[in-house]
């Protein structure tokens, strides 16, 4: 007996009960009998069956008056075995603990002499009854293994070993309870083999809970590995003694119909997939949530009912900002399809699935909806499998956009924004523009100038056509003073940049009958002074030996182009 005090208390009560009931029979109380036919259809005789258990129950007050009854009741209440014992025999379970223990003792003592004609104490029968009570009262955590039937599994191998001391075994290859062998509700025919998931339990008070979590994780791995209807049966079983089993509810919902078939190659791949996941660290919160949501969809009766679960799983791991700004559909297509040519079609199907979800919310029916929902479930399964193996890193959205960038955005729906662009570059290229009567102003930053360059290189303007006025950019007139047809969008110059503006300088000078002198200003100016305002004079220092008798200059108008 697991509990020594309970064992001794029940033995003492059984001895006192045998003495009391034997004395009552000797004093004239009769044990009732029932008449039953003899075994066999041709028998002409009847047999009498003593109803000894009913005799004991009818004299429950006599049993409760025994000196050993009180200590035995306290031992039963302390052990907490009364509820399970009464439930296993279909008896009512009182709410009050002491009363529950008292009812359990009555049923236990009555079972010791059920079918007997006298109340002699049989030690073998007493030990057997105590063993049954021990098995039923034993905690499931004390068992070595936990067994659960798998719904829908079919495979050609009799046993498949998986990581973490989990194995898939044919039910006829090991000792298992009859209830776990039944085909009802198992998505199989009665002549097809039943498969069980066997988990070895560790030590500790939480060993049974840990084993149950491993069973649930097994189903999750199998659903992630392949499409199909797979699940746990309603109960798991823990062996508690010789031929005795403790039944534990799994809490698993009804399994999707259709079954789950593995061939030999797939069985080996499943084992390898489980080993890979076992070696990987626990996933982050987003991936864990996505896998859980996806499993909820696989537990539903059809892929149509699980469509929202699959899409929520994709949103959990793929939504967010990125350098490309691709949509959810294109990100999922980039991870699901290896070929760039297939990503556009896959993205369109995902967009259709998003529309299908909205249609289902409004109660509309769409042709081909089940096929599309099944495809979305497979797409989600593929992406989550890659993520679980660690093939996509920790950020699936970034991995998807990197795939799109590597493919040249052939299947992308976003554009790359270069936020680091600069208006200035160290190298410049000058491009010739057509000659115009009125040159459009441009904002340039002058390169390092060789003032000894030839006229051909710098293109000095012809007299009478234009004047080159050089000034600080921040001192120029505002752009809106220009004519609308001559304004252009320009980069804003920096503080130290120089703006070169080409204007008609003939409007600023007066030409007499004589040859034009340089510079020509009304009222005359001293030789060597420019025509610009004083604020621009420092830009063109006048050398003392300058030759002002130049009559005609050539000018080529250039503009700067980024190299």
Structure, described:
The chain has 563 residues and is of the alpha+beta class. It is built from 16 helices and 16 strands. The protein has helices spanning 4-26, 52-58, 60-64, 69-79, 82-88, 97-112, 123-137, 207-225, 264-279, 285-298, 307-318, 328-336, 340-361, 369-389, 396-406, 455-458, and strands at residues 33-37, 46-50, 145-151, 153-154, 159-162, 166-170, 195-200, 231-232, 235-241, 244-249, 260-261, 428-432, 442-443, 467-472, 498-503, 558-562. It has a five-stranded antiparallel sheet with strand order 5-6-7-3-8, covered by helices on one side. Strands 13-15-14 form a three-stranded antiparallel sheet, with no helix packed on it. Strands 1-2 form a two-stranded antiparallel sheet. A hairpin with a 3-residue loop joins strand 5 and strand 6. Helix 1 runs antiparallel to helix 4 and helix 2 (52-58) packs antiparallel against helix 6 (97-112). The two termini are 93 Å apart. Mean pLDDT is 77; it is low at 409-447, 449-489, 516-533 and 557-563.
